[in-house]
Each structure stands twice: as structure tokens, then as C-alpha cells.
Amino acid sequence: MVNEKNVVESRLTGPVRVVGVGLLGTSIALGLRARGVDVILSDASPTNVSIAEDYGAGRRATDGDEPQIVVVCVPPDVTASVIVRELSAYPRAVVTDVASVKKPVLDAVIAAGGDVTRYVGSHPLAGRERGGPMAGRADLFVGRPWVVAGHPAISYQTAAAVDDLILDLGATLVEMTAAEHDASVALVSHVPQVVSSVLAQRLVEAPESAVNLAGQGLRDVTRIAASDPELWVQILGANAEPVVEVLSAFRDDLDRFIGALSAPEVPGARREIAEGLAAGNAGVARIPGKHGLDKRYAQLVVMVDDAPGELARLFAEVGEEGVNLEDLRLEHSPGAPIGLAELSVLPEVSGRLAEALAARGWRIAG
After folding, report:
1. What average pLDDT does the structure give for the chain?
2. Does domain 294-364 have CATH number 3.30.460.80?
3. For the ranges 94-98, 222-226, 242-246, which has the lowest average pLDDT?
4. Where in the chain is the domain with CATH 1.10.3660.10?
5. Which residues form the Prephenate/arogenate dehydrogenase domain (predicted)?
6. Average confidence (pLDDT) over 61-68
7. What class has domain 184-284?
8. How far apart are CA 71 and CA 29, in angstroms?
9. Distance CA 295, CA 14 (A)
């Protein structure tokens, strides 16, 4: 339930209708309820609505509802048809959606005769490995990019309500065209999914002895390979052209690398390999760090005993030393008595922190 004493005033007048109460829909609803917004819940599954309602995400629809905004959070293959339906059912509402592909949805809404003067697509780049209403979190979007894909048929004044919704949820508003968005997510989201899944296929027939050697590198690269295949078939099918373009360029890079590695003694081969690896360093350096800044952090690897409370003690003692954790990765092999905590901190404090933790009895692995 929402604590009225802790409610922060919303930019919206409400109510907001959320169609589809899976992870994203429920998280949107919870975030808005935390600001006191009247949220209407709708889903093809009555059970999902009941669960979301029990978690305090909003209320069921009634005949007299007149939403200010409708947020469509349904699978990509039905997003356009639901948008058209909601535009017709609520002629005073602005409608947006959170599908991960934007141009095909916009084109389909136009083709179906939907009133695109009241529709603008959007896409929050946030998620979790779990799905469904029980996985919803009110803070899921805090600090995360949220794209609004404007188009000529909608005015800035009309789209402003969607901007307010995004800012209410603590996300960072990013404006792009639908085509720019789809090309961008092909590179930073859709192709990584394909590469991760294709690499993970190599593990299916791999010897158990090899799989048991898996370290953090393999876990990092294959983590998203555990994603829902049915959802990704829809996403990749809808954004096929930009994805194929990036994959083709990636294939060319990989072919050059394979060619050099196949004959490493040939003059120029080792330079080709080194330049490929160095280009990877340069690419990683461009990935935004904490708070969206291009920063490189120092990494400190601490050995943590596999015992209750040890990780919490490490965090507390880092805080006592006045150091802020910029990022964290954990590695723990099954059956091992210790885990490894890779702490990312500002370079200027890494040496001091390593000495302080060692003095406190922590074992520094790197």
C-alpha cells in the first residue's frame, strides 16, 4: 500500500491506464502509485491483474475511467493492435508503449488507421531476468535511459504527458526518431542477445570437464542467453534489418580475426590480432558508466568467505573507509568455500582502499 505521508507529488494529473501487468507494466504502476497517481490495471490474464493489485500497483478498470495516458506493455507481436484499440476506446488519452522496437509498431498503427496525433512510442532500457507482476519494482527505471520516439504527427504539447510519466519514474529521457532507436538497440541490445545465445550453444555438447572450468568471463558473455526465446523471436523478427546489418559487420570482423589467428606466424597476423583486441578496449571505454558518464574505474578483487554476513560486512567496511562503490561483480563457483567480489572504484582511491581492507583482514586477490 502507498504511504500517503511519503508520496512525492507527480507531474501527471492521471489516471494512467497500464495495459499488460508483467514486469514492466507492474513496475510502471508501482512507481506511479508511489507518487500518488491513480493507476488503472488491465491484462488479458485476470490472475496477473489480481497479483498486481495485491502488490499495490493500482486498481481494476471501471466503466467511467477517463485516463490521461495509456501505457501499452504487451508482447511486440500484438503491441500495434492493442495501441489501435486503446486509441479508439479512450479518445482523450495519449497512448504510448514500451515495446523494444519502434518503427514497425508506428508503421502498423498508421496502416491500421490509428490516431497517431495521440500516439508516441517509447522504450525504457531497463529489465530483470525475472518476469511477471511479482518481479515488478517501483525503482526499476531510476537512472535508466527511456527513449521517446517522436514523429511529425504528434505535437510536443501532446507528447509532454509521456515525458512527465518518464520523469516521474526517475528515468533519463532520451529523444530519438523511431528509425534511430531501432538501429541503436540493434547494436547495444539485440545483437548482444544473438551473440550470447550463439556462443552459449557451444556449451550444449561441451565436455563436463570443460564446463566446470567456466569463470566470470563466460558467465558475463552468456548471462543474457537465458532470456525468453519466444519474446526474442518477436523482437528480432520486428527489427531484422538493423540486426542483420550489425551482425554482417560483426561477421566480417570475426572473419578477419579468424584469418589472422589461423596463421599467426604470417607477417602482419599478430598485428591484426592486437589491433582487433585494442579496438575492443576502445569500444568498451565508450560504454557509459555510472550516472551515464564515460569513466574508467579501477577494479579491486576481494576474496569473501562463503559464510552468512560476510558480503554485507565487506560493503559496510568499504563505506566506513569513505569509498563509494561504482560497480560490483560477484563470482562464486559451486562448492567453493570463497567467492570473489570485484569492486569498481575511482582510480585515485583504489590503492588506499586495498591497504585499508588488507589491514582489516580481507584477502586481496587482484
Report:
1. 91
2. no
3. 222-226
4. 184-284
5. 14-291
6. 93
7. mainly alpha
8. 10
9. 39
CB burial of residue 185 (10 Å; 0-12, 13-18, 19+): buried
Residue 143 pLDDT exceeds 70: yes
Q: Is the pLDDT of residue 125 over 80?
A: yes
Give every CB contact of residue 132 below 8 A, 6+ residues apart in sequence: 22, 23, 26, 48, 51
Dihedral sign computed on CA atoms, order 43, 44, 46, 52: negative
Predicted pLDDT at 131: 80
- Is the peptide bond preceding residue 124 cis, with omega within 30 degrees of 0? no
- The alpha carbon dihedral of 353, 359, 360, 362 has a sign of positive
DSSP 10-39: PS--S-EEEE--SHHHHHHHHHHHTTT--E
Q: Is 174 helix (H, G, I), strand (E, B) or coil?
A: strand
Distance CA 203, CA 10 (A): 49
CA distances from 148 to 3, 66, 97, 182 (A): 31, 23, 10, 12
Q: Is the pTM of this model over 0.90?
A: no
